[in-house]
Structure formats: C-alpha cells, structure tokens
C-alpha cells in the first residue's frame, strides 16, 4: 500500500473512531463536546508527520517511544496529551545529551545555590530539576542554541497552558506538528554544539592532564571565540572545581593557569556571582572553601567584585595598611607590597565607594607627592601612576579638597611635595570639564609655592567647597 493510500485510510479511521467514541461516551452519560480536537486539525498533523519524522536518523526513531505515543494521541484527538508526549521525548533527549556531555559541568553551570548543588551528583538526579531549569542549563552549557532555547521555552509554556482544559481545542494541527519539528531539529535529532564540545574537551584535560604555560595561549584563543553564555558557564565550573575540597592539587594547579583567561573573557554578572559565592561560604562557616574562593578571586584580579560589605571592609583595611607603611620608617621599601594589594581592589571603572573615596584619594595622593625625602619610585611607577590615571571627577573633587586637610596641607610646606602636587594638578586639568574642579586646579597651578600650603583658606577655595 502506498504512503498516500495509507494516510487516506488513517484519515477515514480517525473519523470513524471519533464517531464510535462519541457514541460510547453518550451511553456512559459523559460529556462529548470539547473532549477531542476536530478531525480536520488531526488530519493536518497526520498528513505532515512523514516529512517531519523522516528528519530523524533510524537509530533515533526506534528509541523514540514518546513520539509513538504522540502519534497515537494526535490520532485520538488529544492534542494536550500529544504535546506532553513530544515534550517528554525532548526532555529525555536533553538528559541523555547532558550525561554524554559532562554532567558535573552541567550541574555547576545550572545550579547557583551552593547548598542545593551538593544534592546533585549523578544522572539520576537530573529528574529533580524543573523543566525550565533543565533547558536553561542546556543553554548555558551549549547543548542548546539561543534560538533553540527560545523555541523550547515557548513550547514548554504552551504545553503547560494546553494542559488546562479546554485549552487544547484552541491548538491547531499545524502548531502541533511545527512544535514537533522544532523539538526534533533542536534536540531529539541534534548533537551538542561545537562550543560545548570544546568546553567538554578542555574540562577533561583540566581534570586528567598536567597543563603547562605553553598550553595556555591556544586555550586563550579558543575561549575568546566562544559565546558569552558558554564562557560564563565555564568560569562557574572551574570556580566550583577549584573550591572543591576533594580535588587533586594538580587540578587546582591547572585551573590557576587558565582562570585569568576565563575571567577576562566573562562579563561582570558572572564575576559578581562568584563574589557572592565567596560570601556564602563565609556565612556557612565553610572556612576552607571560603579561602579557596578568595584565592581564586585574588588570582584573577577580581577583588573589586566581592560583595559590597566584604569589599569595603577589605578595601578600607588595604588603604589603612598603605597609609601606615607610608607614614612609618622604611616607607620606600615597605610601600610597594601594600600598594600592589590596594591596586587589586580598584575596579576597571575606577569607581571608588563613597564611604572610602576621600581616604583613598588622600592616601594615594600623599604617597604620590612624597614626604619631603622623596617618593617610593617602585610603588609610584608600578601602582600609584595607574591609580591616579583612574581618578574620575568624584576622585578629582576629593583631590582638590585636600588642602583643607591639616595633615595634607602640612605636606605643602615641603618643596618637593609642592612641586609634585602642582604637577598632578596640571595633569588632571586635561581630564575634566567640571567647572568647580577646574577652578581649583587652576588656582593650585597659579598659586605661589610659598602660599600653596594656605590655599585652603582662600576665599575662592572656600567658595567652591562651601557646604
């Protein structure tokens, strides 16, 4: 029998089945209306099914039990059940791909709650994930494309909506067969993306090989070409592995080689996320994991991404330590390590917390203009210059207000300090258009060195900084 004749016979059978079922429901005294989708809509699915199903490889077809149930449900006029079956087949296929890919990577990328993550270890635990979380995790790990994720999330919502009777009667045959085709193309008949395969290979090498610095350059090149979601997932995963107390030292050493590259390729959202995980470890008294988290964040130069309360506490202490090193003996020798640590807290934006801005600007400026005996050149060239380059209007305003400070103004009695302060003022003039700041910078530039220490008492100065 030809395929066309077979389909025609099935169409006739569908009509006959509906008539028989309605008669039977009548004899039982049960409702007959809004139970089954119309035969016309069912015929649309049956007619289009062959071209959709043939997109599956033969080995996939014989394993797709839920698709057989989908066809049966369509023929019976139960589109809500049919949509459930195709969704079940899709979820089953996603779980299989996760297991074949890298289940540890998947869990680390999908579950952000540390305590909850501990409960997910094996493939059996996949059933505990909600469907929305499953497909979101597949997006993050590269098993699904952006477009595939959007399509599946829509189908998931429609499946939930259709389950509420009598909504299924508003579904059309073309919608149902179209969603089936989407699930086949994006999941059931599709292999993981090239990006996902690259990450799987890299994670495998991190866990099993001994990497060297010569291996990093090609890895870095690969990372820069990967999508943002994949990079974010990879960063979460290596952070999770690094803070795992059970891993071998060799694995943590491998991660140290690649962590900075992954961090630099990621966006700020995932960086702040790791900072929050550090706080969570602290809150849960997981001291060793907290220490590993802090070590990782320090390693990648991410201290500015710690949670605000942690950041401000540590940043304030780093400022105080530099100030103490500067104002005590052997300051030229002692300043560089403290300046180096402080530099790690400065975000790329240069934005300094309001509560610490003045103290920070005062300390850095005092170190930069010296103490009358000179400046710690090593600290200046390596750190102070970079800090000063990041001053924005808020920091420049604090810089201009420093002559009001009695401790700072006493520095302006010293010849070298006067010259250095004026040089910085001249340098900053080209970096702002703020009229108040420019007024003070020009005042500093044009004030006689003998009068510079008293500039904070002048009428012009006071008029700018009047409260």
Give a verbal description of the structure.
71% of the residues lie in helices and 0% in strands. The chain has 467 residues and is an all-alpha fold. Helix 2 packs antiparallel against helix 4, helix 5 runs parallel beside helix 10 and helix 6 crosses helix 13. The chain is elongated, with a radius of gyration of 33 Å. The model has no long low-confidence stretch (mean pLDDT 85).
Low-confidence stretches: none
How many H/I helical runs? Answer: 25
Please indicate the percent range of residues in DSSP E strands (runs of 2 or more): under 5%
What would you call the structural class?
mainly alpha
- If you average the pLDDT, what whole number results? 85
Q: Determine the N-to-C terminus distance.
A: 95 Å
Order of helices and strands: HHHHHHHHHHHHHHHHHHHHHHHHH
**In total, how many domains does the architecture comprise?**
3
> How many whole angstroms does the radius of gyration measure?
33 Å
Shape: elongated
Helix content: over 70%
| Beta strand count | 0
Largest β-sheet summary: none
Summarize the structure.
This protein has about 475 residues and is mainly alpha-helical. The protein is about 70% helix and about 0% strand.
């Amino acid at each position: 029998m030809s395929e066309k004749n077979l389909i025609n016979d099935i169409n006739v059978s569908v009509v006959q089945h509906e008539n028989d079922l309605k008669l039977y429901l009548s004899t039982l005294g049960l409702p007959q209306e809004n139970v089954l989708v119309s035969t016309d809509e069912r015929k649309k699915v049956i007619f289009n099914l062959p071209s959709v199903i043939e997109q599956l490889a033969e080995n996939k077809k014989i394993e797709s039990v839920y698709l057989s149930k989908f066809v049966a449900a369509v023929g019976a006029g139960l589109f809500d059940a049919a949509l459930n079956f195709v969704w079940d087949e899709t979820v089953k296929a996603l779980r299989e791909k996760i297991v074949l890919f890298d289940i540890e990577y998947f869990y680390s990328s999908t579950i952000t709650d540390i305590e909850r993550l501990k409960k997910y270890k094996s493939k059996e635990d996949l059933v505990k994930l909600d469907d929305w979380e499953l497909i979101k995790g597949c997006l993050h790990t590269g098993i699904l494309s952006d477009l595939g994720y959007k399509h599946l999330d829509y189908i998931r919502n429609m499946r939930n909506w259709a389950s509420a009777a009598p909504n299924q009667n508003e579904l059309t045959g073309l919608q149902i067969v179209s969603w089936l085709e989407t699930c086949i193309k994006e999941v059931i008949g599709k292999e993981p993306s090239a990006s996902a395969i690259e990450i799987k290979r890299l994670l495998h090498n991190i866990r099993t090989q001994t990497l060297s610095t010569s291996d990093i350059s090609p890895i870095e090149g690969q990372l820069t070409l990967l999508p943002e979601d994949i990079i974010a997932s990879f960063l979460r995963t290596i952070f999770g592995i690094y803070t795992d107390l059970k891993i071998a030292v060799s694995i943590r050493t491998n991660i140290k080689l690649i962590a900075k590259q992954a961090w630099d390729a990621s966006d700020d959202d995932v960086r702040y996320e790791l900072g929050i995980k550090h706080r969570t470890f602290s809150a849960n008294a997981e001291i060793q994991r907290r220490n590993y988290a802090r070590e990782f964040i320090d390693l990648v130069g991410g201290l500015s991404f710690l949670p605000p309360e942690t950041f401000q506490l540590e940043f304030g202490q780093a400022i105080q330590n530099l100030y103490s090193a500067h104002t005590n003996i052997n300051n030229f020798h002692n300043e560089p390590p403290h300046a180096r640590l402080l530099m790690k807290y400065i975000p790329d934006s240069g934005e300094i917390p309001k509560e610490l801005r003045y103290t920070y600007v005062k300390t850095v400026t005092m170190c930069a203009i010296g103490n009358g005996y000179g400046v710690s050149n090593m600290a200046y060239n390596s750190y102070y210059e970079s800090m000063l380059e990041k001053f924005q209007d808020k920091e420049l305003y604090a810089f201009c207000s420093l002559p009001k400070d009695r401790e700072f103004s006493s520095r302006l009695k010293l010849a070298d300090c006067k010259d250095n302060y004026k040089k910085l003022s001249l340098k900053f003039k080209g970096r702002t258009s703020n009229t108040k700041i420019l007024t003070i910078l020009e005042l500093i530039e044009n004030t006689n060195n003998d009068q510079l220490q008293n500039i904070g008492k002048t009428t012009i100065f006071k008029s700018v900084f009047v409260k």
